[in-house]
Write a structure and sequence with these properties.
single chain; 150 residues; alpha+beta; five-stranded antiparallel sheet; 3 helices; 29% helix; globular
Length: 150
């Protein structure tokens, strides 16, 4: 199964259109290597961004998916990561950049009681679009939630 598949549209790779300067409706955080305290902090910051945006309808989904991507980057790469969330006319886009080129793999959960192995399955199931693209040294895993549904 290809990384980047979603029920709404399929995007495996995208051109790098990122910008280093924060936009008015943008959240950008550097996440320290192995710092799992960054996960709830990222959720709180995203919740605040979405509160200012005025579209709280899907903020729970956005927070969940952001938690999954941030956790994956911190646990599976043993490096820093960068979280960027941007609210625009088309909706919300969240990107988590890490510094390891190895692409993530969707896999089945380790069992009925396990909490491991469900992250990308959740992203695929709940995001309107998602994908992985190479980015210099490393990769960016991203998802989008459409504004019309938010």
């Amino acid at each position: 199964m290809a990384i980047g598949a979603s029920s709404a549209r399929t995007v495996e790779e995208e051109a790098d259109g990122s910008t280093e300067q924060a936009q008015p409706h943008q959240l950008r955080r550097r996440l320290g290597r192995g710092d799992l305290k960054a996960v709830p902090e990222a959720r709180r910051a995203l919740r605040e961004l979405l509160r200012q945006w005025g579209r709280p309808g899907r903020s729970d989904v956005a927070e969940l998916l952001t938690s999954e991507l941030v956790t994956n980057a911190l646990v599976h790469t043993d490096h820093d990561a960068v979280l960027t969330a941007t609210v625009g006319p088309r909706g919300l886009r969240v990107e988590v950049r890490d510094f390891v080129a190895r692409r993530p793999r969707k896999r089945a959960a380790d069992g009925d009681e396990s909490t491991h192995g469900r992250g990308l399955v959740l992203v695929q199931s709940l995001a309107d679009a998602w994908g992985v693209r190479t980015h210099g040294v490393g990769k960016v895993v991203w998802f989008e939630l459409d504004a019309g549904l938010a």
